């Protein structure tokens, strides 16, 4: 029944599906690990138990999100050998060591200290426990560093040489590969996005409980911290996104043309198309709502600056405009909505109504999942905008796939969809269940402590004489 389908398209859909699920969890755990570090640091500095209570409340949620991120990430690694074996063979000498560095640094760091962070509060000193929390937070950042370096190299490949058999080989300097032209911008933009994603989840949970009980001190504290993050960091993210866009225009102009919906070149200033319906067949944006010359002002800082369009790109090298056009607008729209909520919270804070404005709290609850939608939309813009290349300008996606038949890819795709929705759906439901419970004083440590398998300390039952 799948013989008429395109194996390459199915492989792309499968990779997009699995990486979208995976991306949700690191986007949350990167920010949440840093939030936990801040909470524990504030507790140690001030001695206020409210910070310890919030730490214990969120560390349980972090443990589940982290575990689901690890599991979904393992699946991603296998896909390089199943659906994309040709890409792995040709690009492996460059991307393989970078991904190995991620395991040897970030994963070992996280795995080594995660147990102490989760279960060691009552077993080690405060300083050592805080150090473990800091190491876990650092590990999540280092993991993002290496993975984004790999992805950025695929977007803006530098520092490599081509072997006679068509493989990418490291050049004279690994630094040129790691710190490729788009990497610093992508790293900053993505990590800030993870922090904002976490902030809006924390803010939504705090707002939810404020709607039920405005006197809940723990809900007030987490909502206040989240809104400070939104008000301060959202403008920084918009600026970082603008810088990333300018870098993309320099190195991947076709992607920006698709993002802007510029099918035609504009020699005297390009309009900013706010909305419209991309018509790839006719090479135009139907029903366009646009601001004259604003795109040139944003991208070139000159109203009359010329901007090339997709009419300068061969048809078989154009990225799919409709997908990129809309995913980019979803990402930008959510970014400005985050900024709006942050500014709204500042007004409420100035009027001493931060914990009393129910409509602000309802808006915060509504914006709770917005960070996840924004990071997925941003990922779609980045990855689909790179098409038709796997390694931009050097290796086509059609040249990267494994020689598999469509039925085989379709069968595995269906299996992934069923298993992912079952497993990760259950995990997401349990996280929401934990969030539904209000944080309170004297939160307990995570339950189900690990069984002791070494050491001389007797088990509790033996120590108490119980049978």
TrEMBL record:
<keyword id="KW-1003">Cell membrane</keyword>
<keyword id="KW-0408">Iron</keyword>
<dbReference type="GO" id="GO:0046872">
    <property type="term" value="F:metal ion binding"/>
</dbReference>
<dbReference type="GO" id="GO:0009055">
    <property type="term" value="F:electron transfer activity"/>
</dbReference>
<dbReference type="GO" id="GO:0016682">
    <property type="term" value="F:oxidoreductase activity, acting on diphenols and related substances as donors, oxygen as acceptor"/>
</dbReference>
<keyword id="KW-0472">Membrane</keyword>
<keyword id="KW-0479">Metal-binding</keyword>
<feature type="transmembrane region" description="Helical">
    <location>
        <begin position="57"/>
        <end position="78"/>
    </location>
</feature>
<dbReference type="InterPro" id="IPR002585">
    <property type="entry name" value="Cyt-d_ubiquinol_oxidase_su_1"/>
</dbReference>
<feature type="transmembrane region" description="Helical">
    <location>
        <begin position="15"/>
        <end position="36"/>
    </location>
</feature>
<keyword id="KW-1133">Transmembrane helix</keyword>
<keyword id="KW-0813">Transport</keyword>
<feature type="transmembrane region" description="Helical">
    <location>
        <begin position="359"/>
        <end position="380"/>
    </location>
</feature>
<dbReference type="Pfam" id="PF01654">
    <property type="entry name" value="Cyt_bd_oxida_I"/>
</dbReference>
<dbReference type="GO" id="GO:0070069">
    <property type="term" value="C:cytochrome complex"/>
</dbReference>
<dbReference type="GO" id="GO:0020037">
    <property type="term" value="F:heme binding"/>
</dbReference>
<feature type="transmembrane region" description="Helical">
    <location>
        <begin position="127"/>
        <end position="148"/>
    </location>
</feature>
<keyword id="KW-0249">Electron transport</keyword>
<protein>
    <submittedName>
        <fullName>Cytochrome ubiquinol oxidase subunit I</fullName>
    </submittedName>
</protein>
<feature type="transmembrane region" description="Helical">
    <location>
        <begin position="192"/>
        <end position="211"/>
    </location>
</feature>
<feature type="transmembrane region" description="Helical">
    <location>
        <begin position="323"/>
        <end position="347"/>
    </location>
</feature>
<keyword id="KW-0349">Heme</keyword>
<keyword id="KW-0812">Transmembrane</keyword>
<dbReference type="GO" id="GO:0005886">
    <property type="term" value="C:plasma membrane"/>
</dbReference>
<feature type="transmembrane region" description="Helical">
    <location>
        <begin position="98"/>
        <end position="120"/>
    </location>
</feature>
<dbReference type="GO" id="GO:0019646">
    <property type="term" value="P:aerobic electron transport chain"/>
</dbReference>
<feature type="transmembrane region" description="Helical">
    <location>
        <begin position="223"/>
        <end position="240"/>
    </location>
</feature>
<comment type="similarity">
    <text>Belongs to the cytochrome ubiquinol oxidase subunit 1 family.</text>
</comment>
<feature type="transmembrane region" description="Helical">
    <location>
        <begin position="404"/>
        <end position="432"/>
    </location>
</feature>
